[in-house]
Write a structure and sequence with these properties.
alpha+beta; GMP Synthetase, Chain A, domain 3; 4-stranded mixed β-sheet; 3-stranded antiparallel β-sheet; 3 helices; 29% helix
């Protein structure tokens, strides 16, 4: 994977990837906000693709993320809480497994920060809270076998 950042003017930068490009307009949106958005979007794509590969459908997906950072430099993330809210045609157990498969196995961005960041999550499925402030097991990830899944190219 390759990304090239080039200064445009003021605090605007262009990011070019192998597939596309986009403008990073600091301080309107900071690089850390882009980073957090990428982390959450990684899990969001899993939450659409894992069910799809099982013949299920997720609708109305919203993931809210709240990160706590160090006050002093380096201002890395200390904690990240993710609130998943979605509807699906699956039971609650299966819906919770999709979230865990994303967090524990498939989402490479979350797995990149999990050794240094306390990660927790809550799940509202079909309007009902099925998990509240659960903590993700820190460490190198686990091998939850959900089979091969279609994914966004990285």
């Amino acid at each position: 994977m390759k990304v090239t950042i080039s200064h445009q003017e003021g605090m605007k930068f262009e990011a070019k990837t192998e597939k596309s490009s986009f403008i990073i307009d600091c301080p309107t949106i900071s690089p850390v906000e882009y980073f957090l958005s990428g982390i959450i979007t990684c899990s969001a794509t899993d939450m659409i693709l894992i069910p799809k590969n099982q013949g299920k459908t997720v609708t109305d997906l919203v993931i809210d993320g709240d990160a706590l950072r160090n006050e002093e430099a380096p201002r890395k993330f200390n904690a990240l809480h993710l609130d998943y809210s979605f509807n699906s045609d699956a039971d609650d157990t299966t819906a919770a497994r999709w979230v865990m498969a994303s967090l524990e196995t498939y989402c490479s961005t979350i797995n990149t920060i999990r050794d240094t960041t306390e990660i927790s999550y809550s799940i509202v499925h079909n309007g009902q809270t099925i998990r509240k402030n659960e903590k993700m097991i820190s460490g190198g990830g686990s091998k939850i076998d959900m089979g091969k899944i279609e994914s966004c190219p990285s």
